[in-house]
Write a structure and sequence with these properties.
This is Branched-chain amino acid aminotransferase. This protein is an alpha+beta fold. The chain folds into 2 domains: about 100 residues, 2-Layer Sandwich (D-amino Acid Aminotransferase, Chain A, domain 1); about 140 residues, D-amino Acid Aminotransferase, Chain A, domain 2. About 30% of the residues lie in helices and about 30% in strands. It has a 6-stranded antiparallel sheet with strand order 2-1-6-5-3-4.
Length: about 260
């Protein structure tokens, strides 16, 4: 793991500054994919960080300052990296770069009993107050699954604890609309802009009745789901095609 604090490379994590904002979970973060020394979709990630900061009245560092810091940590890196950028409300900011561990195990999902309020001030914001998201992961893992699916107050599917959701039904790829309260994921944005993925609202039963289910995020990109509770999903030809095309799209463009 490589760490940068307020623009300076830190070799000893114990030198982190005291931060009441960190203790309160008052701040924002982005998780970004790095491939070798390249930052994937950096412009999109920073734009989302700016919008979230405006919503929560937080001042964030200049784009160039964060970018220079990330590039310092990526120097000499080979392979995929997980880049985490955290901007705290008190002005402190961090960048962490660590290798991405590959896994061939496909995700499996359960339905969460708790619901997401689509009108919450944190709706659509990647906040460091991440307890709600991690609750979904811990709940699912305690039952032998990998992640939990949240619905909103209208019983619409929103997202999992760690990713956006896409379903395939009758040849059409559909992801929950932003009005559901889901995070405006960067991979989600690119799939809507450049591929045949549309926004819509669907409930739990419609998710179970779909032909295939996928998760998308900046690190996993696009991944098929193996199981949703007791229902098994087999590989989809259309899904395999989309996954391959999107992976090629990412590798052919750095700023997308």
């Amino acid at each position: 793991m490589k760490l940068l604090v307020n623009g300076k490379v830190v070799t000893e994590p114990l030198t982190l500054p005291f931060s009441l904002s960190f203790i309160r979970g008052d701040g924002l973060f982005e998780t970004i994919l790095g491939i070798d020394e390249k930052i994937i979709a950096w412009q999109r990630h920073y734009e989302r960080l700016v919008k979230s900061a405006e919503k929560l009245l937080i001042t964030i560092p200049a784009k160039i300052d964060i970018e220079v810091g990330i590039n310092q940590l990526l120097k000499g890196v080979i392979g995929k990296s997980r880049i985490r950028v955290a901007a705290l409300a008190d002005g402190n900011w961090l960048v962490v770069v660590e290798p991405v561990e590959s896994s061939d195990k496909l995700p499996s999902l359960i339905k969460m009993n708790q619901v997401i309020n689509s009108n919450s001030p944190l709706s659509g914001v990647k906040s460091i107050s991440y307890g709600q998201s991690m609750l979904a992961v811990r709940t699912a893992q305690s039952r032998g699954y990998s992640d939990g699916v949240y619905l909103n107050e209208n019983a619409d599917v929103v997202e999992t604890g760690s990713a956006n959701i896409i379903i395939l039904k009758d040849g059409k790829f559909i992801t929950p609309a932003l009005e559901s309260g889901c995070l405006p994921g960067i991979t989600r944005q690119m799939l809507i802009k450049d591929f045949a993925v549309t926004e819509g609202l669907f409930n739990w039963d419609q998710l179970l009745e779909s032909d295939a289910v996928f998760l998308c995020s900046s690190i996993r990109l696009l991944t098929p789901v193996a199981k949703v509770e007791d229902k098994l999903f087999e590989s989809s030809e259309l899904g395999v095609k989309l996954i391959g095309e999107f992976d090629q799209h990412i590798r052919s463009k750095i700023e997308v």
